[in-house]
Amino acid sequence: MTVGADGDRRPGRERLSERLAPDGDDGAPRGGAIDGTAIMLAAAKASVPASSLPRLLDRAQAYLDGRAGEYAQGFECVHEDDETAVFLVPLGHWDTKGLDLGFSHREVDAVRRAHAEHLRRVGADADRRDEFETALEIREVAVVSRSVKSRQSARR
């Protein structure tokens, strides 16, 4: 739930960055472009400390954002909004990218899970849950930032 200035509660996705850094300028890990609830779900299932997942996602986000054009040209975008573009990528994508980023096997698994959970949340919101669950059987997910502010945060 998101609370408006007048105290009105509206359904919406809370970003982990809203809880970690209300001012947005303290340099705290933000979890990249991944939805806050997706981060919490992935952290609960992953074999890494929940406190380290936002830092890992920030590193992965900086990597992805630096290659946004490649993702847009080479992979199917199944959802986009003002902040993110969600791409289906081949199985093994995060294994390869995790090596490039120096992640351990457990860290790769945590990042993979967070990106997949983000897609599941998008699917639930867009009434495309079954379609996305089927896609996850044969593909992985990469969530790329679209907004300049998100890209600047991911580079910190």
TrEMBL record:
Domain of life: Archaea
Limits of the DUF8048 domain: 33-146
Annotated stretches, region: Disordered: 1-33
Extent of Basic and acidic residues compositional bias: 1-22
Protein name: DUF8048 domain-containing protein
